[in-house]
Amino acid sequence: MAVTGRRRSWRWVVTVWLILVAVAGGLTLWVRDSAEPRRHGGEEAGATPSLPEGWESACAGATPDGNGQALCFFRNR
Hints:
By secondary structure, the protein is an all-alpha fold.
């Protein structure tokens, strides 16, 4: 009967530990989320950068794909 008591107490310790870990994780997420300022999707987007001068002539030889879009790399130093 002593073995059954040990197993039961071991299960109790593991159960309490799992509950504490779950509660602590939930509290951590709650505190972290409440400390961050709320952002909306439009606020995160920055201004679209303008294309450098001369990009039309540098990308004139780009071959369009099936959708009519072409990919052109332009490097300016």
